[in-house]
Design a protein that fits this description.
It catalyses: ATP + H2O + polyamine-[polyamine-binding protein]Side 1 = ADP + phosphate + polyamineSide 2 + [polyamine-binding protein]Side 1. Keywords: ATP-binding, Cell inner membrane, Cell membrane, Membrane, Nucleotide-binding, Translocase, Transport. This is Spermidine/putrescine import ATP-binding protein PotA. The chain is an alpha+beta fold. 23% of the residues lie in helices and 33% in strands. The chain folds into 2 domains: 235 residues, P-loop containing nucleotide triphosphate hydrolases (Rossmann fold); 128 residues, OB fold (Dihydrolipoamide Acetyltransferase, E2P), CATH 2.40.50. It has a 6-stranded mixed sheet with strand order 6-7-8-3-9-10, sandwiched between helices. α2 crosses α3, α2 packs parallel to α4 and α3 packs across α4. It is globular. The protein binds adenosine-5'-triphosphate. The site of adenosine-5'-triphosphate (ATP) has 13 residues, from β2 and α1.
Length: 374
């Protein structure tokens, strides 16, 4: 399922050069975004970057200052929210406290004038969908956070929208429940064949659930790609840093080859990169660039790797964090820089344990990191 790589696929949701200003503040700055049918698409970025504003414009709660939004080929300009085949689920759930679960779910259907018998069937179906059959008569206050979240989801899905908009849908849940619910949401999205557009500032949430992620900063989308590409080949230092843990080294190009390059870092070691990622501007010799490498791509060892001269640094273990599945090692180089490596704890059985103040080597393969030009 990769409709974004299939030129015959028509876009399903399309923001075309959309700008949104509040007074003289630009919340969304001339953005074009394409989402395909049945896609799980995440808008990821820090608070205030304009994610929610994009959702609200699609839902019809705000009109763009400039540009246009299309759904299934039709412009949405002037279409009131309740006439759009789009529904929104809010972080606060916005359940009616005085209504029971069934009435909360039925609310939108009632407003639409659905016949009572049909409504009962639909509510039953929704209760089954979110596994709350036994809770139909309870009030929201008598439910756990996770159950309230499912009521909100059922209510948002009851009118069978083509697109579900989710604004930080899991923000109020604790970590374990959040992780479970992430998988429930993706299962539901797939089985119902809906298009989900989710807003989140939580990179793990976006990575776990989304087919594609749009990373946003200051009203602009700065990279759109699959979770793996965002993580493995981030387009900038900002993205590398925002999504996951990363070591970033500033340096200069020593040597440009076919596809790859050699760079000298300010920290005093040499990096050899096998291949520049696709779509990244080719840096010029002498230009400042950055090398980004994830901690788990660093091999940490007491032994110096044989024959290695590049992609090798040496330092002292400064700090260790035990996380159960992995341990994190902060290694202080002679230059004073601190580099982070992780190692699976399962591999400890075969190797000598690494401990504080040990002298260690960090090495990596030429395809393990990324060169960044901004
Ligand atoms: P969060 O995760 O905090 O909701 P966000 O990325 O969703 O952040 P938006 O809610 O889209 O951000 O807001 C983007 C910017 O636009 C913010 O700086 C916000 O203060 C501003 N903004 C949003 N709505 C309005 C409004 N109605 N009037 C004035 N400014 C607004």
């Amino acid at each position: 399922f990769q409709p974004w790589n299939d030129p015959s696929q028509p876009p399903f949701i399309e923001f075309r050069n959309v700008t949104k200003r509040f007074g003289d503040f630009t919340a969304v700055d001339n953005q074009s975004i394409t989402v395909y049918e049945r896609e799980f698409y995440a808008l990821l970025g820090p608070s205030g970057c304009g994610k929610t504003t994009l959702l609200r414009m699609l839902a019809g709660f705000e009109e763009p200052s400039e540009g246009e939004i299309f759904l299934d080929g039709r412009p949405l300009t002037g279409v009131p929210p309740h006439k759009r085949p789009v529904n929104m689920m809010f972080q606060s759930y916005a359940l009616f406290p005085h209504m029971n679960v069934a009435d909360n779910i039925a609310f939108g259907l009632k407003q639409e004038g659905m016949a009572k018998a049909d409504m009962a069937v639909r509510v039953e179906e929704m209760l089954r969908l979110v596994k709350l059959q036994d809770f139909a008569r309870r009030k929201p206050a008598q439910l756990s956070g996770g159950q309230q979240q499912r009521v909100a989801l059922a209510r948002a899905l009851a009118k069978r929208p083509k697109v579900l908009l989710l604004d930080e849908p899991l923000g109020a849940l604790d970590k374990k429940l959040r992780e479970e619910t992430q998988f429930e949401l993706t299962d539901l999205q797939e089985s119902l064949g809906l298009t989900f557009l989710i807003v989140t500032h939580d990179q793990e949430e976006a990575m776990t659930m989304a087919d594609r992620i749009a990373v946003m900063d200051h009203g602009r989308v700065i990279q759109v790609a699959t979770p793996a590409v965002i993580y493995e080949a981030p387009a900038s230092r900002y993205i590398a840093d925002f999504v996951g843990d990363v070591n970033i080294f500033e340096g200069r190009i020593a040597h440009l080859e076919n596809g790859g390059l050699t760079m000298t870092t300010a920290a005093g070691f040499t990096v050899e990169v096998a291949e520049m990622p696709q779509g990244v501007a080719r840096p010029q010799a002498g230009e400042t660039i950055w090398f980004a490498i994830r901690p788990e791509k660093m091999v940490i060892s007491h032994e110096r790797p044989q024959n290695a001269t590049t992609n090798l640094i040496e330092g002292e273990v400064w700090d260790i964090g035990y996380l159960g599945d992995v341990s994190i090692y902060n290694v202080k180089l002679d230059s004073g820089d601190v580099v982070r490596a992780t190692r699976l704890n399962a591999s400890r059985e075969v190797e000598r344990p690494i401990t504080w103040e040990d002298r260690v080597f960090l090495s990596w393969r030429p395809d393990a990191g990324t060169v960044l030009v901004r």
